Automatic annotation (TrEMBL):
Occurrences of domain Fibronectin type III-like (ranges): 728-798
Keyword Glycoprotein assigned: yes
Name assigned to this protein: Fibronectin type III-like domain-containing protein
Lineage: Eukaryota, Viridiplantae, Streptophyta, Embryophyta, Tracheophyta
Keyword Aminoacyl-tRNA synthetase annotated: no
GO CC list: extracellular region
């Protein structure tokens, strides 16, 4: 049904809808439509609005406010024309000189043509592909995240200027990486809500061309809101709102899955990245997801889209649906009674744009039936046209605009390709390094046996989801060849490695090598959009290959794992013949070089895992269980480093270095007095933990980094006694001292990456706002602060206790 509706396309749009391309796979259902690459318009319309002959319209007048330009434009549109604008491939309005516009473009870690807004070829055939997000996140370097986004949006503007891309990008993906099996966990900044929030702010500011100050972690919009017509570089989109992190598992699919989530988990875990994305980074878009939240499809949820996103968080731009998520409301879920009811539900809930065609085809009937009204449609159109105007899409020739001078030479520029290499190097995580086997010295290790299909891999194995054609790709094999002689043998035919037919040959070559480097892990055949894993073990015969090769090796053995999600490699972790393990995520176009440089000691690794590596036994947990907290009575272990107390393969935050580091707290108070009174009611509000007593934090105390008189500095001395320098990542946690499983066992308070000289040191300071950093969320979705001792822990090693007390306890007047 949905497929047919796609095939009908929308007559007002001048390009072939992607469904024509996908039609042969009719039986595979429309799921495929959403993941296969789109076919591009026969003749991509390069013309622009408000060009010669049309620039006399008031809506083209840059001297007017966006509001008045929008209302002028709306006053000129026929109803039919309006309905053609509510979909991702917005129709042309030729009588007003307005070309078609393709809203759907992607910029997750470089541009990609998953949506029809981006088209490679002609002037720009390839772009810089940075590491997949999960690996860049492992750098814990906000400046890096911001610079990547700046580079990506510069390439986007270059593409736009030559008519190969739009200016609305549906990135980043900031859903919490809740379950290790999730096929799209690779696209996200990991499992921790604080890290995801920080990533969202850094990345969105970079994309949108807003100033970003890492130290203040706070941005200032260059110009005031009303005069920012031309200041947005591109518009980012925070997706997928909300509680979306399941593709297809155990008979459930993302299209119909009903995520049952407590208010506590929403406020504490699922929503903070979105809140930061909108409030702090002022992202211009939110995408509602396919799944339902507690019974209601998110795109039809007025509370979520209007009350929370638009009013409470203050979204200024638009809400788009995920692709065909409106059709799903009726066709797949049956939540609405008819197609036009689904359309009305979503528009009335506050969705402005439908990725797909459903709204343009069913809105007229909805209007006739009176279940949606024109003012609701006008409100959506104001959000959409208002943004297009702010992006400069109604200012005539792009080349005459502020970003108009960015030419094709900006794409794949040296500085961008260097940054792609730098990002991979900063993200790589050294998981195991027995007896300091790494780094290798080129003088000692002259000949290496290189094993595994990834080592000489096609782009796909190095780039991950949502990647366009890269400028260049450096395979691991090519990278290693610059340091040593190599003997390469794949060991497995492909990543699935169903057969062990090549294992024997691999064990034979290792005896003539000084060292062995095995590449193993996953690729898009194992984890991707629409495909979750069912196992955490390495696929097929990979484990067998690694064990046999390690056993046969005479020299040291290094295992390099390429994967987005975690894999259970306990067998290798505990095997003394595998001396070193490196996690390389999907390292992007320069990944092979970064890996080789790490192995041969060109730099010291500083990445840390942004997600827990669970053992295979975790697969007994239903992927559909959204609860963060453990429930011992039903054997549910809880999720993420904050709640999961079971065995791990490697912990969140794990990551080794070549340096010789020691850390101490140099200055931290032992007591902090809060200048507020305890609301006696709040003691009951927490319920789960009546002692020590708690303070309910007034909502405004949680915002921003305002200290409200109770902030304090935590300073650390980090010393490197090693003879090589490098960069080092400090993660500061607060730990719960109670054994209460309803409280997080630890929370990430902040993180900082610093550069250390050989035999050098650095002072690392964190400013802590107790209301923001030391609170937990109670069952009513309120932030509460436990009074009494809080234990601060750095990198799971050094501890310090700070006690939170009320000012009145010191005899001060409060409130
Ligand atoms: C505008 O859309 C109409 C209707 O789909 C189409 O016939 C026409 O070719 C389009 N015009 C341009 C300039 O793309
Ligand atoms: C249009 O619909 C919205 C949402 O249902 C409603 O709030 C509003 O009052 C309606 N406006 C008119 C003019 O009927
Ligand atoms: C690596 O792959 C390329 C392209 O698939 C192939 O031509 C080449 O022979 C391979 N290299 C080795 C050493 O097997
Ligand atoms: C924390 O440190 C910063 C920077 O050194 C300083 O400006 C600020 O006053 C300190 N705050 C407190 C509460 O000590
Ligand atoms: C963070 O990333 C930026 C950009 O690559 C880099 O210049 C800086 O040195 C990095 N910081 C650390 C401490 O590694």
């Amino acid at each position: 049904m949905v497929l047919d509706s796609w095939q009908m396309g929308f007559s007002g749009v001048s390009y072939h809808s992607m469904s024509l391309f996908c039609a042969p796979w009719k039986l595979v259902a429309f799921a495929l439509l959403l993941t296969c690459r789109s076919v591009h318009p026969r003749s991509f319309d390069q013309s622009y609005a408000c060009g010669p002959g049309y620039d006399h319209f008031p809506f083209c007048n840059r001297g007017l406010s966006v509001e008045s330009r929008v209302s002028d434009l709306l006053s000129r549109l026929l109803l039919e024309e309006k309905l053609g604008q509510l979909v991702s491939s917005a129709a042309n309005i030729s009588r007003l000189g307005i070309p078609a516009y393709y809203w759907w473009s992607e910029a997750l870690h470089g541009l990609s043509d998953n949506g029809p807004g981006v088209r490679f070829g002609d002037d720009i055939p390839a772009v810089t592909i940075f590491p997949q997000v999960i690996l860049s996140t492992a750098s814990f370097n906000r400046t890096l995240w911001n610079l990547i986004a700046q580079a990506v949006s510069t390439e986007a503007r270059a593409m736009y200027n030559v008519g190969q891309a739009g200016l609305t990008y549906w990135s980043p993906n900031i859903n919490i990486f809740r379950d290790p099996r999730w096929g799209r966990g690779q696209e996200t900044p990991g499992e921790d809500p604080f890290v995801s929030s920080e990533y969202a702010v850094a990345y969105v500011c970079g994309l949108q061309g807003q100033e970003y100050n890492e130290d203040l972690r706070h941005l200032t919009i260059l110009n005031g809101r009303s005069s920012m017509q031309n200041t947005l570089k591109v518009a980012a989109c925070c997706k997928h709102f909300t509680a979306y992190d399941l593709e297809a598992w155990g008979g459930y699919t993302r299209y119909t899955f009903d995520a049952l989530v407590t208010l506590q988990d929403l406020v504490e875990t699922y929503h903070p990245p979105f809140k930061s994305c909108i409030q702090e980074a002022q992202a211009m878009c939110v995408m509602c997801s396919y799944n339902r939240l507690n019974g209601v499809p998110t795109c039809a949820d007025n509370h979520l889209l209007s009350n929370l996103v638009r009013e409470e968080w203050g979204l200024k731009g638009y809400v788009t649906s995920d692709c065909d998520a409106v059709a799903v409301v009726y066709e797949y879920i049956g939540y609405a009674a008819s197609p036009e009811d689904a359309v009305a539900d979503c528009l009335n809930a506050g969705m402005d744009l439908n990725c797909g065609t459903y709204v343009s085809r069913h809105a007229a009937v909805a209007l006739e039936r009176g279940i949606v009204n024109v003012s609701t449609i006008d409100k959506a159109l104001s959000n959409l046209f208002g943004l297009r105007m702010q992006l400069g899409l109604f200012d005539g020739d792009p080349k005459a605009q502020p970003f108009g001078l960015i030419g094709p030479e900006a794409v794949c520029a040296d500085i961008h390709r260097q940054l792609a290499l730098e990002a991979a190097k900063q993200g790589l995580v050294l998981l195991k390094n027995e007896a300091r086997t790494l780094p290798f010295f080129a003088g000692h290790i002259k000949k290496v046996a290189v094993i595994g299909p990834h080592a000489n891999s096609s782009d796909d194995m190095l780039l991950g989801d949502y990647a366009g054609p890269p400028c260049i790709t450096i395979t691991p094999l090519e990278g290693l060849q610059t340091f040593a002689d190599t003997i390469y043998t794949p060991g497995c035919i492909d990543v699935a490695c169903v057969s062990d037919s090549l294992v024997e040959a691999a064990t034979e070559v290792v005896s003539v090598a000084d060292a062995v480097i095995i590449f193993a892990g996953l690729d898009k055949s194992e984890e991707r959009e629409d495909h979750d894993r069912t196992k955490l073990f390495l696929p097929g015969q990979q484990q067998n290959l690694i064990s046999k090769v390690a056993n046969a090796a005479v020299g040291p053995v290094v295992l390099v794992i390429l994967s987005g999600g975690p894999v259970d490699v306990v067998f290798a972790r505990d095997n003394p013949k595998v001396q070193s393990i490196v996690w390389a995520g999907y390292p992007g176009e320069a990944g092979g070089q970064a890996i080789a440089e790490l192995i041969f000691g060109e730099f010291s690794p500083g990445g840390r895992l942004p997600m827990t590596w669970y053992p295979e036994s975790f697969t007994q947990v239903p992927m559909t269980d959204m609860n963060m907290r453990p429930n011992p009575s039903r054997g549910y272990p809880g999720r993420t480093h904050r709640f999961y107390r079971g065995d791990t393969v490697f912990k969140f935050g794990h990551g080794l270095t070549y340096m010789d580091i020691s850390e101490t707290f140099s200055s931290v108070p032992t007591e902090i007095y809060l200048p507020i009174c305890m609301d006696p009611f709040s003691v009951n509000m927490l319920r789960m933990n009546p002692t020590p007593s708690t303070c309910q934090v007034p909502d405004d105390h949680f915002n921003n980094n305002v200290d409200h008189g109770a902030g304090f500095n935590v300073s650390m001395q980090v010393r490197n006694r090693g003879s090589r320098g490098g960069s080092y990542t400090v993660l500061l946690f607060s730990k719960s001292q109670t054994g209460d499983v309803r409280l997080p066992q630890q929370q990430l308070v902040d993180f900082k990456r610093v550069n250390l000289e050989p035999n050098g040191g650095a002072e690392v300071s964190f400013f802590l706002n107790p209301y923001k950093h030391l609170t937990v969320v109670n069952e009513y979705g309120k932030r509460v602060l436990n009074l009494g001792p809080h234990v601060l822990v750095v990198n799971a090693q050094v501890e310090h206790t700070v006690s939170i007390k009320l000012a009145e306890a010191k005899g001060n007047r409060c409130c």
